[in-house]
Every structure is written in structure tokens, then in C-alpha cells.
Write a structure and sequence with these properties.
about 80 residues, about 50% helix, single chain, mainly alpha
Length: about 80
Amino acid sequence: MSLENLQIAALLHDIGKFYQRTDKKHDDHYNRLSTDDYGYNGAHGKWSASFCFGMGLDDQVVELVLYHHQPKKSGYVE
């Protein structure tokens, strides 16, 4: 994992909290996820990941943002 990707993910991991409160939906790609994937309070991760994906950010950033409440699920954290 690059330090730069980790820093970007740290800055953007909660952007979905704002995005979730709009009328916009997260990307359909994340419909299959449940609390087992993103954690009890992590549903906003789907909106955060959608935002990051839409910005064209690295896949690693998107995964870290999506799973920030369950970091081991990202595949980048041991």
C-alpha cells in the first residue's frame, strides 16, 4: 500500500456521510454489500467509495475508503 493512497483514503473516508444525506444513490456496484462487509456504522462507506470511484481515484483508495470500518476486508490491511 502506498503512503499517498493511505493519506487520500484517510482524507476522504467519511465524505459519504454527506453524500448519503443527499437524494443521490451510491453506485449499484455496492448494492451487494451488507453490514458484514462495511461494519455496523459503515454504510456511508458505499457512498464514500462511489464518490472516490467517480473521481477516478486508484482502486486501492476506493477499497480502503469502502472498508474503513472493516479494514481487513479491503485486502490491503493485515
